[in-house]
Amino acid sequence: MLTCVALNRKHPWTSILVFVAIVIASSGLVMVHLINQGASEQWPDNNAAWIAPKWTVESSGKLPLTREDYAHLRRAGFHELAAFVHYTGPLYFEHTGSTPSGLSLLAVDTAALPWKPASFPVFSPLSEKSARIWAHPQTARLIEEQSLLTDDAAPLPVLEVSAASLPKHMLVMDIADFFTASRTTEKYPLTGLAVTSSLPESRQRALRNLLPTHLQLKRSSTIESGGTLGDSFKLSLWALGVLMMVVCMFIVVNALHLMLRFRLYTLLKLRQLGIGVTTLSTSVTLEMLFLGLTASSVGMVLGILLTQQLAPGINQTFTNVLETKFILLPINPWQLMSITWAATALVITAITYVPIRQLQRNLTGRGPGRQRPADRWLKGATVLLCSSALLTTILAKSPAWALISIALTLLAGTGVMLLFMPHLLKLCAQFIPAGWPLAHWSIASTLQLSKQTRLAVCAFFIALTANIGMTVMVDSFRQATDSWLQARIIAPFYLAAPLPVTEPPPAGISLFERLQASAIHRGHSVELRSLPADSRFQSSVQIEPDGGVDWPRFDTGEQAVINQQLAFRFHLSAGDSLPMQLNDGTHISPVIGGIYVDYGNPNSQVLLNARLIESSRDPVYRYAIWYGTPATLNDLTEWLNHAAPGGELFDSEALRKLSMEEFERTFVVTNHLNIITLAVAGLSFMISVALLGQQTSAQLSLLRSLGVSTLKLRLSVLIQYGTLCLFAALMAMPFGLLLCWLLINKVNRYAFHWIYPVSVDSALLMQAILTSIGIMLMVLCIPAARLNGRLDLRNTRVL
Amino acid sequence: MKNHAVILLCLFMFSCKPADSPPPENSPIRSYDYAQVTLNRPLQLPQDHAAHPDYRLEWWYLTANLENESGQLFALQFTLFRFRNPTQRNSNWSDDQIWMAHVSLHNRDEHWFEQRLARGAVGNAGQTQNPFTLFVDDWNWVSDLPETPFPATLTVTLSDSVKFRARLITQGNYILHGNSGYSEKSANGKLRSYYYSQPFLQLSGQINLHGQTHQVNGPGWYDHEWTSHLMQAGANGWDWFSLHLDNGAKLMAFRMRMDDTNAHLSGTLITPDGTVLKLDQQSLQLTPKEFEQVNNKRLPTRWRLKVVEKDIDVELVRFKKNQWNEGVYPYYEGAISVSGSHSGQGFMELTGY
Questions:
Q1: Which domain of life is it from (chain B) (predicted)?
Q2: Which of A328, A351, A368 corresponds to the end of one domain?
Q3: C-alpha dihedral over A688, A692, A694, A700, to 10 degrees?
Q4: A185 and B92 in contact by Cβ < 8 A?
């Protein structure tokens, strides 16, 4: 063991590489953990448990769920139950009588919610100002300080708190404050009891056995998840954190290979002196574990310090982008350290297995001929990974499985790249004219280099694949959003009026009212929007597949179109009927004529003819306005002054611009993390080639003695690195596009219930690849510049 | 005097002014009258075992130093707090009472703590008189008799792996602190409460940890206290001790830390035959000797306590490190050992640090 440690003096860079990689990996993971934890705590993230519970106890229909039922179940030990009322009736502004459209109200027993340090006093019955309502910031702006009434004209508390994680269409309040004035449990029976924590099988059975006949335990569908920007942010942050860890894992494996390569000579001598193979390999493993645990401790401290330093910046981002705050919670270093150590020990034990086995073979004299079994192993593993990736991609029906399929695809891509890279290089060598000996040497050397830096190239390949995937995904989202905005916002102006506009517009101005209402479909809240019988509006709806809607039937109210979110949630398709209960209690059941894209909207939505919702419309007055000869903009504003006093006129262009600006801000953080991952991979590559460069010094001396200038040699070496990067980039391209498809059609599909087409902008793709290669080459200039032609026999051994 | 952290924080939470000041004009608790602690309304048992919903705060508090057959020590705390929330008196769902229960169990190596909150009148938390019960969800204190807390059975389940069930038997009289239960907490008497204890309490029962059952028994200390005025500006927190001395005597001591004056000291010494001696600033000395970093706070966890006229000079040392209850209102509550002129065991509560 001591000898192993002493060997570090000879080749300290390999150990330093391992150390640095583990420090980066562990600090990255600690940062991601702390940021997400702070974000989770600040966004009342027990949302997951009570806004979107997996289980609820609800009435089976015969008798209502009562407060006594609730108390009985809690007293029986089911303290994870929290009573709630989901009010989906109309809400009115007290002073104007108008209705904020599509809002529902969730009143929950906050006393029963799981308590978290940062969530207090926001969600606590002990709070001094207990009578208050929470809402998404956008909803909060809509309501401002106006008092709301329920359908029995009883007032609700004034909205005071905004929380970005709440769904935009939902107000949340305490159940004790809801049941005031004329609102009683008889008038508004409890909707259900939300299960606020995990409910293992045994607890499910016990609860079912305890439930009286009029109650049932069921998978929840009544309250829904917002699918908010915050969720999207956290998901991408975790994905990048894991990606960084995978990249670092490859760096560690790579460094371990290098370390063993440099030590093999000494280890063979020790073996000849009679020290057992097991003793030697155990020593190396223990050394790696020691190095790993030390580095992960340093990484943890670094991660904590960096997060603390970055906290103001993160908070700024959260404030600007997510309209909430980030709070760095008290850190428990012992808990963090135990998690980091356990993860490091596990990963190191796992990834040292193959190199140690290889070392054992070398030490027992079974070194020659090992290349073929290794290739076979690689082929086998690649086939297995490809099959697994394909299978999980086909079968993935949840965000978790979608992420697993992405991980498998990345690993499968790595295997494919490793298998094909040498063949591609050989193929390339055939096209080099015989009169270019230096180029021949370069390509042959690249081939050799590719074999020896496999794992470093893997790290670069994964980082680049992820970079391409994320870049194309974000760009596809951007293009889809832009085209959706262009298509949907067709009128030059939109008007939000406090009262109906009854005065006919002057010549040259046309006004189209857009009615709003809400309904319930299978216990799920649905937004209803009218679509005027005008070809301009109908062609603005991007139906997929195109041409499926029978517009004459739509205009008679027989058909409606639904957004992807609703279609995906309930597995609906064109031709299905869509039974819904409107606010006024009436039932409608139009046939689905088509499914339209509705990017960024977490809610389910239906577009239908106005006549279907006239009776239950919300008192919200929105109009699309066109004007033209003989009317001018002045005529329009003048007319609106008396036709719609107090209304707001929105310029379409400004709306589109605002929407796109918000879009760009959302991905600022992930873009930066993407670049960091790439830089980490570049660093690994640089150190690998710097170490391996020593092996070519004999050849370089020979070339120099043949009259090749040092500059040419350096350029040649740089070309080798560039060729490797280029080939890795070429192979990363298809896998990056595949990754993008998976992110959109699997992760986004199951996490947020909408998809959009993959749009490949070749210029942007090339820019991403060239930037990546450029960064790598800039980094690799350092080892290339340090090359010299001196011969060093100690480095001529090949593993 | 129990759980002052809760008092401090909840009074802060209710935006309270000094106890005798009227609330400001814009206060949400305007014209909301809390019952007052006065000498004109003396504490009476058994009636006052019941809840006092007209008062702002109340708590029933049990601590116990338990031991199993092999000498392994356990420290148990069960507390039921009641708060009157002035902003919720018109709800059709619940009344204006909030119930909060804490259960804490320590052995040498582990700590289990859980908190439950519930609203009054919903049916899953409260206090009843016939029989006397205290309950929140499935945590139950059920007396064998009406109107009196003892003898009783206490049942608590913290998780599937931690269960506790014990019989609570008294072996002496209730002790009224201060002036027949009228207990002053500050030198000017503005801070005061009704406060009595049952220090002659014996617990015996089972603790089930991870499937293993421990038969335990040991002395317990029961407090019941209620008030509407326990806070004023400048009060920083309290240090509270309950001691079971091996000679059979019991001792309660507390120290209220103030901004601008010396700490206010008070206590009660109870001899084995139940004779009560009131302790004050002159007769009681309480000095921190060692500090410990707990949850990023510097807490005094080793003390010297002297009652000069009774030749009591003892050291109070924590049972284990980090006896911290991380609830809505975090505070230190843990077992202690007593050594010096007398030996014994007890509990220590540190708040406001």
A1: Bacteria
A2: A368
A3: -120
A4: yes
Q: Which residue has the higher pLDDT, A725 or A107?
A: A107
In this predicted complex, what is the ipTM?
0.90
DSSP class of B259: S
In this structure, what are the phi and psi dihedrals at residue A326, rounded to the nearest 5 degrees? -110, 130
User: Containing H/E element for A735?
Assistant: helix A710-742
What are B's interface residues with A at a Cβ cutoff of 8 A? 10, 13-15, 28, 83, 85, 87-88, 90-94, 98, 100, 115-119, 122-124, 135, 137-138, 157, 295-296, 326-328
Inspect the interface and report whether the beta carbons of B92 and A115 lie closer than 8 Å.
Answer: no
The answer to whether the CB atoms of B13 and A184 lie below 8 A apart is no
How big is the A-B interface in CB pairs under 8 Å? 92
pLDDT tens-digit readout, A595-608:
988 876 777 899 99
Q: Give me the number of domains chain A comprises.
A: 4
Same domain assignment for residues A455 and A543: no
Instruction: Tell whether A409 is covered by a domain.
Output: no
- A341 and A307 fall within a common domain: yes
Q: Where are the domains of chain B?
A: 4-16+49-350
A284 shares a domain with A266: yes
Q: How is residue A513 written in tokens?
A: 């009212």
Tell whether A637 and A657 lie within a shared domain: no
Residue of A68, A120, A176 lying closest to B91 (CB–CB): A176
What CATH architecture does domain B4-16+49-350 belong to?
Answer: Beta Barrel (2.40)
Contacts of A475 (CB under 8 A, 6+ apart): A759, A761, A764
Question: Residues A186, A253: one domain?
Answer: no
SS (H, E, C) B190-232: CCEEEEEEEEEEEEEEEEEECCEEEEEEEEEEEEEEEEEECCC
Please say which residue of A368, A384, A403 terminates a domain: A368
End-to-end CA distance of chain A: 22
Nearest to A19 by CA among A600, A687, A524, A521: A687
Q: Which residues of B touch A70 (CB under 8 A)?
A: 122-124
* Within a domain: A422: no
Within a domain: residue A749?
Answer: yes
Contacting residues of A for B27, CB less than 8 Å apart? none
Are the Cβ atoms of A125 and B98 closer than 8 angstroms? yes
Contacts of A183 in chain B (CB under 8 A): 92
**For residue A121, cis peptide bond before it (omega within 30 degrees of 0):** yes
The reply to whether residue B157 touches residue A72, judged by beta carbons under 8 angstroms, is: no
Average pLDDT (A618-630) is 81
- Position A393 in a domain: no
Identify whether residues A30 and A2 lie together within a single domain. yes
In three-state secondary structure terms, A554 is helix
Rg (CA), chain B: 19
Chain A residues touching B124 at Cβ < 8 A: 70-71, 74-75
Task: For residue A192, give the DSSP letter.
Answer: E
| H-run or E-run covering A681 | helix A668-692
Going by C-alpha positions, the residue among A525, A501, A529, A500 that lies closest to residue A516 is: A529
Distance from the first to the final alpha carbon of chain B: 17
Contact across the interface for B10 and A115, Cβ inside 8 Å:
no
C-alpha separations of A595 from A544, A571, A606 in Å:
6, 11, 9
Q: Domain residues for A41?
A: 1-50+229-368
**A71, A131, A177: residue with CB nearest B124:** A71
The span from the CA of B293 to the CA of A334, in Å, is 15
The pLDDT tens digits of the residues spanning A112-157 come to 887 665 444 444 556 555 567 887 776 776 676 677 888 877 888 7
The CB density around residue A376, as the number of other CB atoms within 10 Å, is 10
Q: Are residues A130 and B137, on separate chains, in Cβ contact within 8 Å?
A: no
